[in-house]
Structures are given as structure tokens and as C-alpha cells.
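pls ignore typos typing on phone
zinc ion + seq
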Amino acid sequence: MGTPSGRTGNFLLDSVPASDLDRLINGIAPSTMEHDQVVQRPNTPIQDVLFPTSGVASVMTFLNHGNAVKTVEAITVGREGMTNVHAAVGATMSGPDATVMQVDGKGFVVAIGRVTAEMHRQGVFADVVHRYVQAFWAQTAFGSACNAVHHVTQRCAQWLLQTHDRVDGDTFYLTQEYLANMLGDERSTVSVAAGDLQRRGLIEYSRGNVTVRDRPALESAACECYGKIRAEHNRLAPMD
Ligand SMILES: [Zn+2]
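k done
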């Protein structure tokens, strides 16, 4: 994915006029977000929204699984979007999910009061956020169907493509344990899937770093969900 040509590097913020942008981020410098940093905890008051300019955040769901807790990624958020999107449309508390940085990066952390005030103006920002919510919904809908129906290797390819879309370059840090958490599968199962993609020359995996070697072939290896989610983003909240 190319770097946005706008003023901030976040596609939502760069879609609004300068005066609206000033009301949103005046006086706010981009924050650095570390890998594994929790951006929003479950069931807590929502105090701010992150507009990533680089890096990738994941909305994670938690399920009891025997004596352990299993995590599964529900949504990927990068510079095309924002975290806590439900707060922009009225929520004051987070749900039972958490938002965690999966790839480190930067972004504007904006107090929720500024975000909701701008939404209430019902100007360009509100239009942009509403379109993003629709694209966000497509990710949620296809994501749940995907987890139920599609093979782990297809889902692995899809997840790698979604991350690749949101980072600079072709390499990003990703442990197999983390990938297993994202996909909701056992680590051994994900290891076989990633090994399969590597043997076919689509990716290279070395010491926690994934490099996308053959993007078109990786797209062919992914399930239909990747293309359908991407098409909704292109229609509603473009990613490049
Ligand atoms: Zn799928």
C-alpha cells in the first residue's frame, strides 16, 4: 500500500478540509505505538480514538477455551481507519473486545470529546466516518463467515494480505504465536499453513519476520474474503 499523499498519513483525517482537521488534531503530535501495546481495554470508558498513520492495530475477541483463554482477531485497523469507531457514533464504553497493536507504528490519539463534537457538526468528517463504519462492517461480516468456513492456509494468506496492505514495504514482524492468536488456531496448525505458503515461495519467514515475496500468488492463495473486504474498502473508505 502506498503512503498517503495527505497531511497526516491517516486516510480518514486526510479526507477532511483543513479547518475540520485543525479542530480534530490541533496541538496533537503523533504518538508512537509499540508492538503488543493495548490501545483500548475491554469494558472501560472510551477516552480517545487512535488514527494510525503507520502500523496495524487489531480488535481482539476473547473466548474461554478449557482452562485457557483463546484470542481471535475480529478486525484489522491501519491508516485507512480509526480505533473505537463505535465511540464516534455514540458509545461511551468499550465492549468485551480489546484493541492491541499487532505491528508497531504511529498515530494521532484524539480525545473522544473532539471526535464526537466533530461528528455532531455533520460535516465531511461525519460522512467519512460513516463510510468507514460500513467498510468496517464488511470486515466483521466476512471475518465471521471466513473463520467458520475457510481453510487455515487461505485465512493465513488473507490475514497476511490485510497486514501487508497497511504497512510500508514487504516485511513485518510477526511471531507464529501471534499469528495463531490472530487466526484463532493452534500454533502447530498455523505453523503448517505458514510453512506451506513459504514452500510455495509466496512468503519468507525468518526469526519472526514475514516477507511477502509473491503478492499476486498470495492473493490467489487467499480465500474470496480478502477481495470482497478490499472491494468494500475501495468503494467506501479507500486504502490507497
Ligand atoms: Zn475467507
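Residues 146, 150, 154-155, 158, 223, 225 surround zinc ion (CB under 6 Å). The chain is about 40% helix and 25% strand. more later
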